[in-house]
Design brief:
mainly alpha, Four Helix Bundle (Hemerythrin (Met), subunit A), two-stranded antiparallel sheet, 6 helices, 4% strand, elongated
Length: 180
């Protein structure tokens, strides 16, 4: 990873973390669990899912490096990947292993997200591995190199931050119980 790539990824991870925390911190349990519709996720589910994805992605990056997996060929540019993952104009179905289950208590959701993001950020800050040389496939985006996976994780968090803001903007969102 070049110094410029490290800086870009670190800044994107920090920016998207801060945006998620600004959107979700200080919400009451009722606000965290509010769902605008039966087929929509709550803020709690968005946070849990984002933390699960970050842990999974970081684990897969470590595995790809350890196994010298994949080809450095990727199927799209960094910019196109980030644009696609952050685009909320269409809905995507999460694979079963990263669907939120509600196992994380409401009072731990923000700290779980923060911890998962911290592990990703520390990895980016400290790794000497040339992440562009390792890749593994994404089910929607094709072959993605490990550097792009870092960008994808940050962008994915931002996608769900936008979803959190959509939930909070819902007319029936419980405002009176706000702890903000």
């Amino acid at each position: 990873m070049t110094p410029e790539e490290r800086q870009k990824a670190g800044a994107f991870l920090d920016e998207t973390r801060d945006n998620m925390l600004r959107a979700a911190k200080g919400l009451s349990p009722a606000q965290l669990q509010y769902k605008p519709a039966a087929d929509r996720w709550s803020v709690a589910e968005c946070l849990e899912h984002a933390a699960l994805v970050e842990a999974l992605v970081l684990g897969n990056i470590h595995n790809a490096i350890k196994e010298a997996a994949g080809s450095p060929r990727t199927d799209m540019t960094d910019e196109a990947l980030v644009r696609m993952v952050t685009d909320r104009s269409g809905r995507a179905q999460a694979p079963e292993r990263i669907v939120p289950t509600g196992k994380i208590p409401c009072d731990q959701l923000v700290s779980e997200f923060e911890a998962a993001r911290k592990r990703m950020s520390e990895f980016v800050a400290n790794t000497n591995v040339p992440l562009r040389r390792f890749a593994f496939p994404h089910p929607r985006f094709g072959q993605v190199d490990c550097y792009q996976w870092v960008l994808l994780a940050a962008g994915h968090g931002d996608r769900h931050r936008k979803q959190v803001e959509e939930v909070i903007a819902d007319a029936d969102f419980p405002r009176a119980a706000s702890a903000r």
